[in-house]
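Dear colleagues,

For the upcoming journal club I promised to circulate an example of a predicted protein-ligand complex. I picked one with zinc ion because it came up in last month's discussion. The inputs are reproduced below in full, followed by the predicted structure.
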Amino acid sequence: MKRFFAWLMLCLMLCGCAAEPPAAVPADSTGLTVHYLDVGQADCILLQCDGANMLIDGGNVEDSDLVVAYLLDQNVSYLDYVVNTHAHEDHVGGLPGVLAVFETGNVWCPVKEYSSKCFGDFLYYADQQNLDLVCPEPGSTYDLGGAAVTVLGPVRDDYDTNNSSIVLRVDYGQTSFLFTGDAETQAEADILDAGYDVSATVLKVGHHGSETSTGYRWLRAVAPAYAVIQVGTGNSYGHPHESTMSRLRDAEAEVYHTDLQGHIVCRSDGQTVTFTTQKQTAETNPTAEPQQFIGNVNSRKFHLPTCSGLPQEKNQVVFESYAAAEEAGYAPCSRCLP
Ligand SMILES: [Zn+2]
Ligand SMILES: [Zn+2]
């Protein structure tokens, strides 16, 4: 019996040792910033940690100038990694322009050829820097400053283009981020079946919120506190799909959308994450007071309540929204520019 107890204690101790120690951020690390750029119906994400930079996708071809300007604005001069999750234009389109401007260390892509003009341009500018396209091995881990980037997918090489997306998990201290490209439920299931830890604080929702991505099994395993959807206003695909939104509600994830909030920036100190968005609207910030507008019944102009040119009170009419003022046939004041 005594021997059994000793055995049990030894087992418990060994198990204790084998358990993952709580992740710590290196003492000199200054934080991880993840920028989800508003590039319409497309993906583009910049990660910055301790002076190291990774760009995941580059938006459409016409987003190239915006992406380059954004990177310059963030003082990027060198990209340690440029990742093209998959060869579709809304992911690779802006990358040739990026490679033409920024010296780059590594280029990751699941394929080495794809028949489109923009993919050809991507190859051309990678080649100009003597860079080979590499598909990183699932399970391999890379440093990005004090953050660790783990490759989770693609786990197979016979996928269609969306499922071929490179899927990355980035750990920083106790916070983690999942980047999925346009991976659909097939790729999600294969990653789960391969046994990878996919739990994450922040999930980049796959394929712009398409109903064919972000399945229940995936969401249960990821259990994100926050989800970010990169999607264009009024896109013809109906993204994000209502069924995806419903699954995200069931998962109790707080959802950010680039179509409503513009660029979304998430900062991690290794313990907690904080979000800032380019646009704060009543729609996206339910705690904000609804914006009212004051119309002038004589001039038929409408103003911000703070405008210096408001009419006398007896000539005022209050509108509960911009749309209501326009609908009533009022024009915006040229002084306060509501
Ligand atoms: Zn896409
Ligand atoms: Zn795609």
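Two points we might discuss: The longest strand covers residues 147-153. Residues 32-277 form a domain with the Metallo-beta-lactamase; Chain A fold (CATH 3.60.15.10).

See you all on Thursday,
B. R.
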